Amino acid sequence: MKLEFSGAARNVTGSKHLLHVNGKKILLDCGLFQGHRREAIEANLNFPFDAREIDALVLSHAHIDHSGAIPILVKKGFRGPIYCTHATRDLCSIMLRDSAYIQEKDADWVRKKLKDPEAEPLYTMEDAEKSLSLFRSVRYHQIFSPAPGVKVRFLDAGHILGSAMEEWEIEDKDIGKTIRLGFTGDLGRKSLPILRDPEQLENLDLLITESTYGNRLHDEIADVEEKFSKEVGEALARQGKIIIPAFAVGRTQEILYLVRELQKEKKLPSFPVFIDSPLATSATEIFALHPECYDKELQKLIHAKQDPFCPDCNGVRFTQDVEESKALNNFPGPAMIISASGMCEAGRIRHHLKNNIEDQKNLILIVGFMAENTLGRKIVEGENPVNIFGDPYQLNAEVKIYNAFSAHADLNGLLRFARSCGKPKSVFLVHGEDQSMKDFRQSLSKEKNLSQSDIEIPTPGDIFELQIDKTWKKLNYTNDISRNLLGGDWPELK
Questions:
Q1: Which class in CATH covers the domain with range 223-401?
Q2: pLDDT value at residue 314
Q3: Measured at the alpha carbon of residue 279, what is the angle toward residues 344 and 377, in degrees to the nearest 5?
Q4: Considering the entire predicted model, what is its pTM?
Q5: For a disulfide at 33, which of 14, 194, 280, 474, Cβ 3.0-4.6 Å?
């Protein structure tokens, strides 16, 4: 058995890990790279595996950095089943179509504005439709077999609607032993509103874990209400607009939930809230279809007919078309505009930032992780001016950063999860930036159950082979396409 790492190795996007087992190839996630435009396009175009040789895909959740390259996989010849939870299937049915639409519009813009007649989308709506026909959804805890001798079941990861961690039980024919492999996907947090808390993987021989916040702690969600109501209230009082870049799935619904709770408690007045994202509108409708993912508090609200996602309740309006979106530029304020994408790299949020970033009355709320080289990260780091659509804009609006909304486990959450996973022989750290993973590796090594474990930080292109003692040996050759992704400069981590 071999494990090959490509995307989300020493970075946080483009999640792809290829498992070679019992003569079959199974891909764990198939995400788009996001970040610096030219670099991301090149990385997405250079698909690192022969799609025709992959037998199955097991998908942890619907976020585009985990699912968004599925149409590329299918375009290149993949015809196997795509396993995921029911909610992930439903979310992907809108998210992959939305991503294809954005790809097509971006290609149109490049052809017209940058005078590049050869610009093509990464994939089209037709490619997205073909990929959706391959989805095979299963319940949480239902065992399925993507290859001979391989059993998998999904446990709730508590990250977004339908998100799953994966428990693999593999009868490996190469070494004649049974291996218990666990993959966190993106691990969620305890005590967040809306979703159930993450479950726990146990008795593992190998743990593949995300490490996005491997050296950071979040503010507690219970402490954020006072700060949020104060800062939003101040922006409303000065007749400003509150601009929130938010993932259409998860973060948008959390903000809606919080605003309505604060208004119910009279900590915020009623004011116009615009959800300016067709994807967020559709995603919010899908939330209503999957009560199996709700926590007890939300289930009580639903039973009491107090739906926190009700459109046109408490001043919340879902924009219907581009013209309605453009009209927000002339809306006098005060108002809140929640729009995608969450890292400010695509979609309508760039237009809202362009039209509002230079006005000091306005407030930009950063409520999620911003990857390196994204417009969102540049705003977080106070770069001034920032380029939007190729033109410089002064960052005069107030910027506030909220870590409490993160749907990823922080250092304490990651450690709590790892110390209950058994005594794995090996741990692979993925989905994190270098410093975060280095610090997280050091923290993990101090845990009693992991003190004898090999803790590896794979570089894109690394291939590991399972040994008879259930440890993993890094091979002396690499997947050169993966190694050269994102510039190909990967100094050794010590």
A1: alpha beta
A2: 60
A3: 15
A4: 0.88
A5: 14
